Amino acid sequence: MVQIELPVVAINFKTYPQATGERAVLLAQHCESVAKEYGVSIVVAPQTPDLYRVSRAVDIPVFAQHMDPGAPGRHTGHVLGETLVEAGCSGTLLNHSENRMILADLEEAVRTAERLHLYTIVCTNNPTVSVAAATLAPSAVAVEPPELIGTGISVSQAQPEIITGTVEKIRAVNPDVTILCGAGISTGEDVRAALDLGAQGVLLASAVAKSDRPVEVLKSLVEPLRDC
Amino acid sequence: MVQIELPVVAINFKTYPQATGERAVLLAQHCESVAKEYGVSIVVAPQTPDLYRVSRAVDIPVFAQHMDPGAPGRHTGHVLGETLVEAGCSGTLLNHSENRMILADLEEAVRTAERLHLYTIVCTNNPTVSVAAATLAPSAVAVEPPELIGTGISVSQAQPEIITGTVEKIRAVNPDVTILCGAGISTGEDVRAALDLGAQGVLLASAVAKSDRPVEVLKSLVEPLRDC
Amino acid sequence: MVQIELPVVAINFKTYPQATGERAVLLAQHCESVAKEYGVSIVVAPQTPDLYRVSRAVDIPVFAQHMDPGAPGRHTGHVLGETLVEAGCSGTLLNHSENRMILADLEEAVRTAERLHLYTIVCTNNPTVSVAAATLAPSAVAVEPPELIGTGISVSQAQPEIITGTVEKIRAVNPDVTILCGAGISTGEDVRAALDLGAQGVLLASAVAKSDRPVEVLKSLVEPLRDC
Amino acid sequence: MVQIELPVVAINFKTYPQATGERAVLLAQHCESVAKEYGVSIVVAPQTPDLYRVSRAVDIPVFAQHMDPGAPGRHTGHVLGETLVEAGCSGTLLNHSENRMILADLEEAVRTAERLHLYTIVCTNNPTVSVAAATLAPSAVAVEPPELIGTGISVSQAQPEIITGTVEKIRAVNPDVTILCGAGISTGEDVRAALDLGAQGVLLASAVAKSDRPVEVLKSLVEPLRDC
């Protein structure tokens, strides 16, 4: 399994035009330079067609945004783990809120990724689903507390129990899984709050991938990681 | 719109290990060398993570195996047309039997591809669906006569009406769409039969992508195209 | 095939609490009494678990809101045509915007329904998709002009071309299919406008199924049908 | 929550013609008469359009084969819990292998069912998925050991660890959930073996629903329950 240094900041490029094609490469290079300058762990998740060119251009871990279950051979148009490995990926997001997976497929994808030494971050929408995902033994679970989705409330402003409660429940079934905070993160203050509450990293998208000044934003986001 | 010279042989790499990663590049280069040597039109459709590296390596048209509908921004893990363009694609398969699409999504994908000048090949499973697909005005329809799917019967052995009947029905609603034969093709004889019966090309996968001697197979497949 | 008298007003009960269980029966009886009093054609589409009790209670045609493709035997939890017939259904909606279907499945469902003499109303989201659906030869297509969806604009207020254009395009590929207007209908004036513009009926939901006074609304809606 | 007496034999009617419409009612009545004669607990799961007529005809618990997540209002063609309650259902199967669910939808459906006092049986395909499902706190998990699916091996012939191992893993995360054996059951001997190995009941389909002599089969199946 690829080792991801913790705490980690994972950047989902989604399909933002500012993070597509050559601009995906540029953004990943910005992430790499900040990671090196600050000595912190940053992971990038560009779109599937951009994975190869990004992984060739940077030394930080490159993740897919999704991986399908299934064995090589058929499955036209599907994104299999074996092909992600060939494209230079170190891991993959799974079950993102924009790409929810069937439970049995999710488990199969986690197992396939495990066999291929790909790191898996399973996104989840509430504490109960987070616990269920944790029992599948992925590398990490990225919890998105419903109180922080689309409400404009950030982790640093929210009630601490929202995060700590989920962390405790996950730990009861899986003491080893990495726990990321996957919502309500746009500033360094939010990252610090997430880490203080027991998360081992964060997963975010627009604050970096849509920014006109991504380097500046990245520096402010990773500042709290230097102290860890 | 990218112009694809007709008749055309389109090769779906599926997720065959022999057509993944660096071997996808190699297979595409074989296709390119045969296309140039014989002066014929060959299109390759590698897996999504391989699109960029293949399109950088060859001058023949590179197609995606699937494209999702949707506008850039969200859609984590989806494969959007804008990103395919950036990856060097000239077109995409749509609605492959291993990746069937919702009708409204298929139409939206065809429209988006059109706007982005991406060539679209819509796969269909019977004459009625072929006609429906043709009314969406994609660049091409790849018909898979049910009599040729999984029966071991090739186009050259089948009753001519199986192909000619579908061609006639499609022409009644769309005189311009390119018609490919998408099943029952593994030899040059099959290609010739398909062309004789009114198809303007073929879509095939395993005969090339799983072959130990793909160049040899490709040469035999494109032989009938030289005469056109 | 069940004959549905035209023009028709089809009422989709959706999953409104006011149109569920015993209240579905009551609403269907209201529809029946208005249909008889006014001598007009009304079709009701209650939820799947309510189909049997509604079809037992009324003499007007009862439609399912959805039907899955597939042959009897497996398919746990799916809604097959054979079972709809046993439940007393005369037809089914297909491809509703809240239940979009894969093109190949839609075609298979239309064929199965045809064999079982079930009337099919295929919902479509724009003129191009309406034409594609019409080539599948369902009993009817319910067109939802995008200009009338969620805009608050009703058919009677909209530019006539929005309906007439779609009707013309459908007629070019299928002179026989019944054309319903599936959006922008909440008053008798809207029904009249839809009929004037070439539709042979309407499909609507909330104006009746959420109403506190459904009989009154129904009477106003069917008033224009009396004159036909 | 409806209380289901344990041990239980749950019969999935699937879409078998022998268990559709009036024949679903008849089969459910057979199940009821055997349940009463032998003083055992039998649950029937007919198709969605048959739920109302079956629940009206028998006093044993009637389950749906599937339930969709979502709140009443929209969701045309979906099967919501509120409507199942109105149709006389006591519970529902969820995530059957022929109707796999997205993890987040499955959790939402379990929560909705809980609120509506509907009993939930979540089907699962291997030990890891069984544990994940158990953390969602459904009423029951029906485990389908992969060694018993499509292999012709029955529970009574299989190695005991196949069942006991899964039971232990589930108990570690949820001491209360009912555990059913959902594969490899066609005789009373199989039922006895399943109960001996820690299951609290069985879920089966074809052995009863496709049988020419369902009463006889049912009697042989429930014989071991009399001793419990």
Describe this structure in words.
With 228 residues, chain A is an alpha/beta fold. The first copy, chain A, has one domain (8-227): Aldolase class I (TIM Barrel). In chain A, 40% of the residues lie in helices and 15% in strands. The first copy, chain A, has helices spanning 22-38, 51-57, 81-86, 103-115, 127-135, 161-173, 188-196, 206-209, 214-226, and strands at residues 8-12, 41-45, 63-64, 91-94, 119-124, 140-143, 178-181, 201-204. In chain A, the strands form 2 sheets. A 5-stranded parallel beta sheet of chain A has the order 3-4-5-6-7. In chain A, strands 2-1-8 form a 3-stranded parallel beta sheet. In chain A, helix 4 links the parallel strand 4 (91-94) and strand 5 (119-124). In chain A, helix 1 (22-38) packs parallel to helix 9 (214-226), helix 5 (127-135) packs parallel to helix 6 (161-173) and helix 7 packs parallel to helix 9. Chain A is globular and about 50 Å long. Chain A starts with 7 loop residues before the first strand and ends with a helix. Chains in contact: A-B, A-D, B-C, C-D. The interface between A and B is large, with 40 and 40 residues.
Main attributes?
homotetramer, 228 residues, alpha/beta, TIM Barrel, five-stranded parallel beta sheet, three-stranded parallel beta sheet, 15% strand
Task: Explain the layout of strands and helices.
4 copies of one chain form a homotetramer.
Chain A: E1 8-12, H1 22-38, E2 41-45, H2 51-57, E3 63-64, H3 81-86, E4 91-94, H4 103-115, E5 119-124, H5 127-135, E6 140-143, H6 161-173, E7 178-181, H7 188-196, E8 201-204, H8 206-209, H9 214-226
Parallel strand pairs in A: 1-2, 1-8, 3-4, 4-5, 5-6, 6-7
